[in-house]
Every structure is written in C-alpha cells, then in structure tokens.
Amino acid sequence: MKQLFRFLRAAFCHLSVVWLCAWSGCLSCSRADGPRSILPPDVALQCGDVVFRQGGGFTSHVVRVADSGGDYSHAGIVVDSAGHLLVVHAVPGEEEDEDAPDRVKAEAPEVFFGSMRANIGAVARCDDSVAAMHAARAAWQVYRRGTLFDHAYDDTDTLQMYCTELVVHAYKAAGLPLIGPERHEVDLPGLHCRCIFPSDVFRSPRLRIIKTF
C-alpha cells in the first residue's frame, strides 16, 4: 500500500507542476523568493498549542475529500526542546530518505508552516496551561521513541500514530480528552478505516482558536 501511495502522490505532484508551469509560463517553475513560512510573526506559540495546516499535495487532498467538514488536512502539537519550540507531528512521505520508514517528526514551526507544505494555517490553545504542558511532554515522548506513522489509521494502540491520533493521545495522557469516542468511517480506494479528522480536533471545546491565517 505504501508503494501505491508514493506512486499516486508522485503522479499528483507531477500533474500539479505541469499545470503550474502552463499557468505561469515559467520554464523553471521556481519561485523567485523561495520557500517561506506562512506563520505570522505576531503569533507567539506556547507549549501544548495545537497547530493546523492545509497543504496542496496528494495526502492533503485525500484528507480534505474525506473530511469534507474541515479546512485543514494536518495537525501537530507544539513542544519545548531545551528552550526551542518545535512542532511534533506524524506525517507520511516527508522523509529525506525515501526508503526510510515514515516516523513522527519534530521540526521548527517555520518548517511546519513552510509555504511548500502549507497554504493556510491555524493555532489553537488550551486554556489549562498545566494540561497543555503535560500534553506537550507526552507528544515529545512519542517522538523520542521513534514512533512510526500509522498507515492503517488505527488509533486503538500507540505503537504507530497518525497526526490527529498523536494530538488526541497527548492530551488524553495529560488527563484532558479533546474529543469523545466517536470515529469516522472512511472508505476510499486502498483504505478503509475508522479515524479522527482534523476538524474533530479543531472544533474541540477544550481548545480556543487564537489565530487563522
């Protein structure tokens, strides 16, 4: 299934590049100003913040087709690593080595919100700062243990995780469940699962949206 996913993603990206070249008339298809972060400079992230983005790639398109009620296709959680804020998130297809297994990542917010991967974004915050700190620590532990990405989108265990599963797990470990037990049935070619959508987390009554951009 992973090989099929990579093939479809590569085909989608190729068609997107061809369309962009035809639309812009640019032979190189490169941006003059290069990649940038869409995260506004006036947003001061805090540990435990839940961050959302919508990308333009194949994976984002599939998620948005399934999650028709939401604007975002991916989520992560902000953590502190020796005084540096990072976003811990589970995402497929972003490993530098294409033969390496997909794992939970930790990267700078500017990278998470890089314009090559994010068209729009949002930041949500839990008003319980103690729970948010504990959730961030739980997410950091998930990253530190080298947790694999869950291509089966099965949140019944924590051996592998997908993006919203990680966020929900972190806050549940902190004693503050973000959502209830309900899950969505997804039936797409090559994938049948019961999963948590980004819109479920985005609409959690435990979170307050502090910025959309």
Give a written overview of the molecule.
This protein is 32% helix and 24% strand. With 213 residues, it is of the alpha+beta class. It folds into two domains: 1-31; 45-212, endopeptidase domain like (from Nostoc punctiforme) (endopeptidase fold (from Nostoc punctiforme), Alpha-Beta Complex), CATH 3.90.1720.10. A six-stranded antiparallel beta sheet has the order 4-3-2-1-5-10. The protein has a two-stranded parallel sheet with strand order 6-7. The protein has a two-stranded antiparallel sheet with strand order 8-9. Strand 2 (74-81) and strand 3 (84-90) form a beta hairpin. Helix 4 (129-144) packs across helix 5. The longest helix has 23 residues, at 2-24.
Order of helices and strands: HEHEEEHEHEEHEEHE
Number of strands: 10
CATH topology call of the largest domain: endopeptidase fold (from Nostoc punctiforme)
Name the poorly predicted regions: 1-32
Q: What would you give as the CATH superfamily of the largest domain?
A: endopeptidase domain like (from Nostoc punctiforme)
